[in-house]
Design goal:
The protein is α/β, with parallel strands linked by helices and about 400 residues long. It has helices at about 10-20, 25-30, 60-65, 80-90, 100-115, 135-140, 155-165, 170-180, 190, 195-210, 230-235, 300-315, 350-355, 380-390, and strands at about 1-5, 35-40, 55, 70-75, 95, 120, 145-150, 210, 220, 240-250, 255-265, 275-285, 285-295, 325-330, 340, 340-345, 360, 370-375, 380, 395-400. The structure holds L-homoserine.
Length: about 400
């Protein structure tokens, strides 16, 4: 029997217990052993909960129980999750987590610690919720040199952008509605400013490179400046605005970025709507592949955590290979990245814009008082210099594809 402890009986933690209970016959068959939740660690008590007798408040009870071989860290945040995960791994107990903050910050170190102690640090649920993406990168695409990952990795912002696109709504109104419906956090900053997607692309990029991609080095821009007018132009261009988290391994270096992009209808990520996430991966032998599904939510995320427990059960005393060591990947300055840009300027700046950018493609959306256009392919640096020079910029959005 595999004795499991769940740290944090919140949304994901209670989901882990529910998934194990609901699918126990199938899960136990696939694991080759019965899974049993022996402890649930939480500061709170849960009177009336069917698992209330499993609740403990002291982590040492779990740490010192030799029967517990797998710990699910579903607490989130760095403290005390980091200390608990370290102590568990040092004691030879595998850790399965949904904690993207912790994986992005200390993933390489915790993976190494797991190797040294013949156990596992697994984190399928940390990116894309229930979408299998860590396992494909780790096991399935091992014959590939992956040169590009592009993801819609945040459900909250994808929901907001989808509503703005389909209903012509304002950012602030949709955000409020999403908060009222429980889709968006009361403090939505990590989502709408792109920090959540940044951590997730850092995790995927680290697996792509086999070395650590520091999320703090990734240029990140959120969706707060995107307006309903931008979507009117987007429609005219046959495009939509999506918050993309991307990394590219090129001859000029390794680039990573999180920002809103205008993507065309033909782009595989165009139809990824509402709270759904998707990860679009390019490998040099396979070409394109895409992974799609629910990127958040109790049961999808918990399902991914439980799949990691099953992996632990299948590999007792063995560390499953994961290539992510502590060497730091150098991220090339985004200033050198080349692309086209969509720009809106005050009407009075039309001549200055044409002079600065040369032959541009005009875009009309019956919006008065402004001039909108698409630049030719240029570096981010050259683009910034020119928009600063002309002034009067209402908005600018990067073009993909
Ligand atoms: N806040 C995240 C999202 C939750 O909206 O995608 C899943 O990591």
């Amino acid at each position: 029997m595999i004795q499991v402890a769940v740290l944090g009986y919140g949304t994901v933690g209670s989901g882990v217990v529910e998934v194990i209970e609901t699918n126990k016959a199938d899960i136990n068959k696939k694991a080759g052993e019965e899974l049993n939740v022996k402890y649930i660690l939480d500061l709170r008590d849960f009177p009336g909960d069917p698992y209330e007798d499993k609740v403990v408040h002291d982590f040492n009870v779990i740490l010192q129980d030799p029967d517990v071989s797998v710990i699910c860290e579903t607490m989130g945040g760095i403290k005390p999750a980091y200390d608990f995960s370290r102590q568990a791994l040092l004691a030879g107990k595998s850790v399965c987590t949904s904690n993207k903050e912790l994986v992005a910050l200390h993933g390489a170190e915790l993976i190494e610690l797991a190797k040294e102690n013949h156990c596992n640090y697994l984190f399928e649920a940390s990116v894309g919720g229930g979408i299998p993406i860590i396992r494909p990168l780790n096991y399935s695409l091992t014959a590939e040199k992956i040169d590009s990952i592009t993801g819609i990795l945040n459900g909250t912002t994808n929901y907001i952008l989808t509503k703005m696109d389909k209903e012509g709504a304002d950012f602030a109104d949709v955000l409020k509605e999403a908060q009222d419906n429980g889709y968006a956090e009361r403090n939505p900053e990590a989502d709408i400013e792109g920090h959540d997607a940044c951590r997730k692309i850092a995790i995927l990029s680290s697996l792509m490179k086999g070395e650590n991609v520091n999320y703090e080095d990734i240029y990140t821009e959120g969706i707060t400046k995107i307006t309903r007018e931008d979507f009117r132009y987007a429609k005219k261009m046959g495009r939509s605005v999506k918050l993309l988290a991307m990394s590219r391994d090129t001859e000029d270096g390794f680039f990573a970025m999180v920002a809103p992009f205008l993507i065309p209808k033909e782009h595989p990520l165009y139809s990824v709507n509402d709270v759904f996430n998707a990860v679009y991966v390019h490998g040099n032998m396979l070409g394109d592949s895409m992974y799609y599904g629910r990127g958040a939510g109790k049961l999808p995320t918990a399902s991914a955590v439980v799949s990691d427990i099953v992996d632990c059960a299948r590999h007792p005393g063995k560390t499953i290979m994961c290539f992510w060591d502590n060497a730091q990947v150098k991220i090339t300055d985004t200033a050198n990245a080349k692309r086209r840009f969509f720009v809106r300027v005050d009407e009075g700046k039309k001549e200055a814009a044409i002079q600065a950018f040369g032959a541009v493609e005009e875009v009309g959306a019956d919006i008065t008082g402004e001039y909108a256009f698409i630049t030719n392919v240029m570096t981010e640096k050259a683009f910034e210099e020119k928009v600063t020079e002309i002034g009067g910029v209402i908005n600018r959005i990067r073009m993909e594809g």
